[in-house]
TrEMBL record:
Any one GO CC term of the record: cytoplasm
This protein's record includes keyword Zinc-finger: yes
Record organism: Chauna torquata (Southern screamer)
Keyword Transcription: no
Full protein name: E3 ubiquitin-protein ligase
Superkingdom in the source lineage: Eukaryota
EC class of the enzyme, as a word: transferase
Taxonomic lineage of the native organism: Eukaryota, Metazoa, Chordata, Craniata, Vertebrata
Keywords of the record: Cytoplasm, Ligase, Metal-binding, Transferase, Zinc, Zinc-finger
């Protein structure tokens, strides 16, 4: 079937007050998420967009002394393969689960 592909662009910047290390520069990047293109998937896409606008989608983590943007607590699918264990499909419960989290 057809698919929705969400693209999140996170700019590199300096962390703001409230982050674990305020004023620390961090590295942004491009992040992709995949959803089925059906009514359920479109509804989920709208919710994910709202969460992104509210700053809930990503978090900043330290890797080897470098601050990087990574996915936060909301699960996103990044592959059509590998199943739940690898952030992929098939995962029959995913849309229900992500809507519950949102």
């Amino acid at each position: 079937g057809s698919a929705l592909r969400l693209l999140f662009k996170v700019l590199s910047s300096c962390s703001k007050v409230g982050h674990p290390r305020p004023g620390q520069p961090y590295k942004g990047g491009y992040f992709f998420a995949l959803l089925p293109d059906n009514r359920e998937g479109q509804k989920t896409a709208m919710l994910l967009k709202k969460a992104f606008e509210q700053g809930l989608t990503f978090q900043i983590k330290s890797y080897n002394g470098e601050e990087r943007v990574t996915w936060g607590l909301i699960p996103h699918k990044t592959s059509w393969h590998g199943g739940k264990a690898r952030n992929g499909y098939p995962d029959a419960q995913y849309l229900r689960e992500v809507c519950t989290v949102l």
